[in-house]
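Sequence in, structure out. Go.
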Amino acid sequence: MPGPQSTPKEQSQLDQLEAAIRKMKVEAPATFESDEKLIIALDFGTTFSGIAYCFANQRDTKVAAIVDWPGAEGESAPTIPTLINYDRSDKKKFAWGASVDRLQDNIVGVKLLLDPSQERPLYLPTGNVKRTLRSLPKTPVEIAADFIGAVYRHALNEIAKVVPKDYFSICQKHFVLSVPAVWSDAAKNATLQASKIAGIFPVTLIKEPEAAALYTMHSLDFSLNIGDAFVVCDAGGGTVDLISYEVVGLNPNLQVKELVAWLDLFGLNQRFVEAVKNLVDEDQFADLRKTKGFLLAEKSFDREVKRSFRGDPDEEYFINFPMGSLDDDPDAGLEANCWRITGKDLKAIFAPLITDILRLIDHQVKSVKIKRPSSGVTGIFLVGGFGNSHYLKSCVERQHPGIQVLQPTDAWAAIVKGAALSKLPRQAAVVATSAPKHYGVSSWSLYDPETDKGFPTQICRNGSKRVEKMTWFINIGDDIMRDQKIKFSFYRCIDEKYEPSDLIFHDELYECADPDAPVHFTKGDNIHINCSFTTDLRSVPNTKFTKRIDKHGEPYYDVNYNLVVILDSALMKFSLEMDGVSMGSVEASFK
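Output:
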């Protein structure tokens, strides 16, 4: 996720954009929808969030970031803390982002609360997640909606300041929201629900590393050829999100497909907190942690030290704890509430996290090699807040001397700017995704005495013996083209004199993360419900059903239909087909 830092380049781009738009003279059509498009992207991060935007119809379109935020005290900051704090007497009132008092009991990690099954990073408070959910003033989706809505409304107000009022009013607003690559479909769906509650729709979801890859390829002079592969490592404030891509086309634009995806959790700033705790005694630390001086020290470490450090043990940095009242400890470098932190100290703080990131990147490189035995990885892109680190870059280069390691100058913004670029024509495109899990359904199949012995059976209406089995329509690692239709076949029997309610069916779509998905659904298997869906065929004429006679001479209908799944950038989309024609309806409820 991005970390807060502004650049002169950012302001220059904003000035150029404003100048270009002010030269335009556009009149709003009386009856036709304007073709002018404003793309607004939000990186809803675990620790920090940011907004970027661009106008789609501008020549040589530039992407700009919102840098002025409530509570930032005049400081230009392209991101804000993902924090929210409600008024105890009125839940409709809340402080958000930089306007939140960091010393209060704030709601943190609301993004992860959208999926309680997700592991929580070390820097977030530990405890019982169910108890945490019960203590919230609203549901996680409603809290996310409040935060997202506040950020977007402020962004719209800021964008309106730099373009003519008439032009801004006729622009179609296209919203894009980034989500982690390896995140549950339930969490992605909850994010869409939060956006809708906030009054922001339609919203397109995009995977964070995918957005980062698009921006990196857009901003860096990196020559790619068909067959090249590269790893995108998004090292943010609370997660390390990695995806590998392979180049599959160059014309009319760069086209890539996913190879391998992975997600892990960590917290670099938490390592700094632990280092300070070891520097002073427990009583002093307990008092220090309650002061604004400690927050300023954390800010200094986050924005300056961790990004500037290059790995030299003789480097020195000075971190102040204003009004800390700390006892001097010259041997440890602590004097007059100022800690002289050396490169050796920083290496100790960074060590376990660098080790983990190198392990994850190495896993990607080896996985790509397994998937493409004759080729390797061409480049490694480092993005996100910690992706700015010079030390991280040097460590990755030493670990993989034969692979080019690239780091955009504004790596913190790669996700949010790439998300905005994803809606522009003629940009690089991800044309295929790699299935992160197995997806399938449980259904009755003809009994096989060799493979199904010992499993429960039943006799169906035509007299045949059947057993319940898993049918996996998608398997881990499958290459799935963007907008490719994947059809899950379903079969039902209904009486000849059926009621309309008999044409409403309830099913589950299952997922499994094991390398080899099981054939039978047995207790202890790592099979989980991805979503429940309701199929409604009441609008389908019975001429689409096949009339049969059962073994007792009674007429009935065979009902055959397909659940059609499209794996969009970040979330599954469902529809129904019969004989290749869209019919009926389907409604999915994610678990």
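Check: The two ends are 26 Å apart (CA to CA). Residues 1-6, 20-32 have pLDDT under 50 and may be disordered.
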